[in-house]
Design a protein that fits this description.
alpha/beta; 13 strands; binds nicotinamide-adenine-dinucleotide; two-stranded parallel ribbon; dTDP-glucose 4,6-dehydratase; binds thymidine-5'-diphospho-beta-D-xylose; Rossmann fold
Length: 337
């Protein structure tokens, strides 16, 4: 595998994955990215032009996709509309990019017989009940959990996963899939939970919790997601799905309290704002298959340390996130969030 096509490689996880490839492999990368509001040329700017090139285009544009797939040894598909709150305001780009875009890519890899890895989310499984305090062995998602997406975003990702499996079974497409939990780390847009709170705190404002902050997310450092995707691409079995997670369950309230400690602020110095419609209660991943079958192991075990490093990264990269901050906050304020 010498030349990879990475869709959505100018977004948060895609860009971190490209950095991971440059540091740990010899592959050459072509990024296909539409450069939506969520993308960043800067995230790729430090990488050598001899190994990374960026094609600005739409994953739902069959002509461009066919041309790029024809010259790649394998494709890793990150491109998507990714924010749940935006999908509640306007679902249309979610259907177009996440479903039609994945369909377009599948047709191209079918024509060219190209290996594909499809990147998806644990949100396709819907949510789990919150854990009673003191309860043992709480339920977690596995590869056998039934699909039950809640939001337009997660429904569009679920649809894309179904298309990939159907193309494997019906047309013999050489694809693997992964469903990962919530990522954090550098280059994440300020609309998302952790960067929003970090940048509010840098600005001397209070973090904003939806409701009382009881909802639970299963956090994984983005580098660990990258190593999982590379492991599955190179060692995974065709047609298989692997769940990716690092045993990082925390309530949103706990995350905010950890951030408040990092900033030396009182633990109750946050605001409760309007809750998200249909807000999933809890996500939790059982990554046993990936760990035992492919020997993958996350490297960022300490969430508090990872969070503190992420705070430092946002402090050092204010020039990058500042231009998006005011408009993002204005859109939240208009919804009472
Ligand atoms: P992101 O929104 O930060 O980046 C998405 C990228 O896709 C952007 O660069 C954007 O310009 C590009 N894009 C959007 N529409 C496009 C189109 N039509 N054609 C080409 N490029 C297009 O998202 P992210 O958080 O980096 O997520 C990447 C992938 O990982 C998504 O498929 C998402 O569902 C999945 N995922 C994300 C998380 C998470 O915690 N963020 C967790 C699990 C899975
Ligand atoms: O200001 C906020 N306050 C708040 O309490 C924001 C922006 C969010 N939240 C809550 C909602 C969620 O319970 O924090 C949690 C995390 O929110 P998001 O960062 O929007 O992530 P989530 O909706 O869990 O989805 C993320 O993980 C799965 C990614 O955005 C998806 O792309 C991925 O598939």
């Amino acid at each position: 595998m010498e030349h990879l096509l990475v869709t959505g490689g100018a977004g948060f996880i895609g860009a971190n994955f490209v950095h991971h490839l440059l540091a740990h492999t010899d592959v050459r990368v072509t990024v296909l990215d539409k450069l939506t509001y969520a993308a960043s040329r800067e995230a790729l700017a430090s990488l050598p032009a001899a190994r990374v090139d960026l094609v600005v285009g739409d994953v739902a544009d069959a002509e461009v996709v066919d041309l790029l797939v024809a010259s790649a040894d394998a494709v890793v598909h990150f491109a998507a509309e990714s924010h749940n709150d935006n999908s509640l305001t306007d679902p249309s780009p979610f259907v177009q990019t996440n479903i039609v875009g994945t369909f377009t890519l599948l047709e191209a890899v079918r024509r060219h017989g190209t290996r594909l890895h499809h990147v998806s989310t644990d949100e396709v499984y819907g949510d789990l009940p919150l854990i009673e305090s003191g309860a043992e062995d709480p339920q977690r998602f596995t590869e056998q959990t039934a699909y039950q997406p809640s939001s337009p975003y997660s429904a569009s990702k679920a649809a894309s996963d179904h298309l990939v499996r159907a193309w494997v079974r019906s047309f013999g497409v050489q694809a693997t899939l992964s469903n990962c939990s919530n990522n954090y780390g550098p280059w994440q847009h300020v609309e998302k939970f952790i960067p929003r709170q970090v940048t509010e705190l840098i600005d001397g404002r209070r973090p904003r919790l939806y409701g009382v902050g009881a909802n639970v997310r299963d956090w994984i450092h983005v580098d660990d997601h990258s190593s999982a995707v590379w492991t599955i691409l190179t060692e995974g079995r065709i047609g298989e799905t692997y769940l990716v997670g690092a045993d990082g369950e925390r309530s949103n309230l706990e995350v905010v309290q950890t951030l408040l400690e990092v900033f030396g602020r009182p633990r109750d110095d946050f605001e409760s704002v309007a809750d998200r419609a249909g807000h999933d209660l809890r996500y939790a991943i059982d990554a046993t298959k990936l760990r035992t079958e492919l020997g993958w192991c996350p490297q960022h075990a300490d969430f508090t340390e990872g969070l503190a490093q992420t705070v430092e990264w946002y402090r050092a990269h204010e020039a990058w996130w500042r231009p998006a901050k005011a408009a993002t906050e204005a859109a939240y304020a208009a919804k009472g969030q």
